[in-house]
Every structure is written in structure tokens, then in C-alpha cells.
Design brief:
Layout (H helix, E strand, L loop, with lengths): L1 H9 L2 H4 L3 H24 L3 H29 L4 H28 L4 H21 L7 H4 L1 H9 L1 H12 L2 H31 L4 H25 L5 H21 L3 H15 L2 H11 L5 H15 L1 H13 L1 H6 L3 H10 L21
Length: 360
């Protein structure tokens, strides 16, 4: 319900907040709603209130987070991959810090409501920082000129741009690859603990260690990516990581014992870390000056991508979780195949500047 209903509310956001002024207002208003939704979750005393709060959180996150991401992509059009790598590193840091925060709250005698209050306080600090910073760095004024023109032309014209983008395979492929790649990133993480306990027959404590290893290795991979992209083209990194994942993931499933599985899991997590930031940067790079269209396409794709966990769950119920996860071996192959015709200049990603006729 939050994914679908929240996604519907978020869908027109990118089109409405296309100009710099509108986008900044949407980010600030979205930040306020973001904080209020966290407070509502913390104070919820019934399931309907909790459901509404979590549903509202989705479009609020889209306004506060996704539009900020779009603003960064507009601000550095020639370094989108590098900026997205730093963005993803911040996200991975939060993914590791979240369980630590919850553990600290529980150790201090608090509960999950206190943890949500702490998150609301952290969000308030981030919102205050957004209020104090400049709306856009100076280089972004030229990059955002096209979107400012779109804003003047009206919502209907911008909606037509989205439809035009859906007919362009050089754009659609990045949208599809983002959701396909997520099957071996977030979706796989969601089923990992169940797999380690029910299939590998590890204790809950060791399975928790496996999750910690995955999050920690992903953080290390994101940190390494920030350095690597200063020297290597993003599409080269994407291809190498896809080949590595194509070898590592079957190795993880076939590894005979827990120690081997956990070691391979760590390397696999680091190998797949570049997928989201590079693919997302490529999407923005395929839509120069139209980041609002990229936000809208991402919102729509995320709604469809929400069927991924459902599909894995249904297959697991019918054939077993181990067989359901076996099907994910096609994910790195799809990522590799989708990146083969990509040039290395679209996302501003390092010294190599290949040309891709299909992208042009």
C-alpha cells in the first residue's frame, strides 16, 4: 500500500517541480512532511495511523530526497557519475548507521518509537542545512536553463517529454536496468536473512552477522567507487562489476559451508555496489537538462519494481527460496548486456570519452 499509493502521489512531482524555484520549494515542503511522517510513525497507536504515516513518507521522501538528487545532477552535468557515487556512499553510511542507532537506543532502554524520534531529529538537521545552503551552485544555472524553459511552457508539455522519453530506447534501457539490478541489491538483501536461516540453517545471530557483512562490504564498495571513478570510466566499472557478480553470485549459492558463503557474500556486495549510482547517473546523462523527466521515470519504475520482491516471494512459496534466488543469476548478465552499447561520455565519468551512436 505505501509503495503503490505513495508512488501515485509522487509520480507528478518531478514534472511539477521542474524549475529551480519550484524544486527548492518542493524540497523544503517535502522535508517538513518527511519529518512529520517520522513523528507520526513514532506516535502511531493504531494500524491505520501507521499505514497513513508510512504512505505519506513515500512522496515526502521523493520531494525531499529525489529532487535534491536531481538538483545535484543538474549542478554537475559533467561529473554525474562521481557525484552519484558520493550520494550512494552517504546512503550506504546511513544503512550501516541505522542498525547501530537502533542497537544504541535498545541498549539504553528505549524502543523503536525512540529510534524514529531520533531519525526525525536527524532529518530536521538535514532540512535546516537545506534551508541554509544556496539553491544551486553557479555552474548549474546554465544546466538548468532548459528546465526553467520547460516550467514556463506548462505541465502538459513536460508530460509530453516523459512520453517522448518512453519511446527512446537509449533512455528506457537505463530505467529498466536500474530496476533489474535492484533485484540483486535491495531485493536480495531483503531475502538474505531468511535464506541464511531457513536454507543454510544458520542461527539468527550468525545470519545477523551475514547482514552486517553485506552492509559493511557495500559501504566499502561505495567508498572505493568514489576513488575509482576519478580514474576509470563509469561504463568500464559497470561491465567489470557485472562480470564479477555473474561469477560470484552462483559461487555464493553453491558454496558448501557458512564461512565460504560469508566471504563470497562480502566480495559480491562490494562488486554490486557500483550498479545503482552508475545506472542512475546514466539515466540523468541520457536526459540532459531534463532531470525532472528522470525523476518522473524513476518514480514510475519504482512502482513497477515493487513487484520484484512479490515475484521472488511467490516463487519461493511455490518452489522454495533457494530456487527462487537461483533465478537472480540472470541479473548480472542483463546488466552486462544492457551496458555493452553504452559509451563512457554520457555521465561525465572519468578520463575516457568513448562515443556511442545510439546515445547520440
Amino acid at each position: 500500500m505505501p509503495l503503490l499509493a505513495g508512488g501515485v502521489l509522487e509520480l507528478p512531482l518531478g514534472l511539477w517541480a521542474s524549475g529551480p524555484a519550484r524544486r527548492r520549494r518542493a524540497v523544503l515542503v517535502g522535508g517538513v512532511v518527511f519529518i512529520l511522517s517520522l513523528l507520526a510513525v513514532a506516535g502511531a497507536r493504531s494500524f491505520p495511523v501507521l499505514l497513513i504515516a508510512v504512505t505519506v513518507f513515500f512522496p515526502a521522501s521523493g520531494a525531499f530526497v529525489s529532487l535534491t538528487q536531481a538538483e545535484l545532477m543538474d549542478a554537475w552535468p559533467d561529473r554525474q557519475a562521481q557525484v552519484m557515487a558520493r550520494w550512494d556512499l552517504a546512503g550506504s553510511t546511513g544503512a550501516v548507521a541505522g542498525p547501530l542507532l537502533l542497537g544504541a537506543v535498545l541498549a539504553a532502554g528505549g524502543g523503536w518509537r525512540v529510534a524514529y524520534l531520533a531519525l526525525a531529529a536527524a532529518a530536521a538537521v538535514a532540512w535546516l542545512g537545506t534551508c541554509l545552503r544556496d539553491p544551486l551552485p553557479a555552474p548549474a544555472v546554465a544546466a538548468g536553463a532548459a528546465e526553467a524553459s520547460d516550467a514556463a511552457e506548462g505541465f502538459r508539455v513536460r508530460a509530453r517529454l516523459v512520453l517522448d522519453a518512453l519511446r527512446d530506447w537509449s533512455i528506457v534501457r537505463w530505467v529498466l536496468l536500474i530496476e533489474v539490478a535492484d533485484l540483486l541489491v535491495d531485493v536480495f538483501t531483503g531475502f538474505l536473512a531468511v535464506y541464511l536461516v531457513d536454507v543454510v540453517h544458520l542461527s539468527p545471530a550468525v545470519a545477523a552477522l551475514g547482514i552486517a557483512i553485506r552492509l559493511g562490504a557495500g559501504l566499502a564498495g561505495d567508498a572505493a567507487l568514489v576513488v575509482v571513478l576519478e580514474r576509470v570510466a563509469d561504463v568500464t566499472v559497470l561491465r567489470v562489476s557485472a562480470v564479477a557478480a555473474a561469477l560470484l553470485y552462483p559461487g555464493f549459492l553453491l558454496a558448501p559451508g557458512p564461512p565460504a558463503k560469508l566471504v563470497i557474500l562480502a566480495v559480491l556486495s562490494a562488486a554490486t555496489a557500483p550498479w545503482y549510482p552508475i545506472l542512475q547517473a546514466r539515466l540523468y546523462g541520457s536526459l540532459p537538462g531534463r532531470s525532472s523527466v528522470a525523476v518522473t521515470l524513476s518514480s514510475a519504475a519504482a512502482m513497477a519494481g515493487g513487484l520484484g520482491p512479490l515475484a521472488v516471494g511467490l516463487l519461493a512459496g511455490a518452489f522454495g527460496l533457494s530456487w527462487a534466488l537461483v533465478l537472480l543469476v540472470v541479473v548480472p548478465v542483463a546488466v552486462l548486456a544492457g551496458s555493452l552499447r553504452a559509451g563512457s561520455g554520457a555521465a561525465g565519468s572519468g578520463p575516457a570519452r568513448d562515443t556511442d551512436v545510439s546515445d547520440e
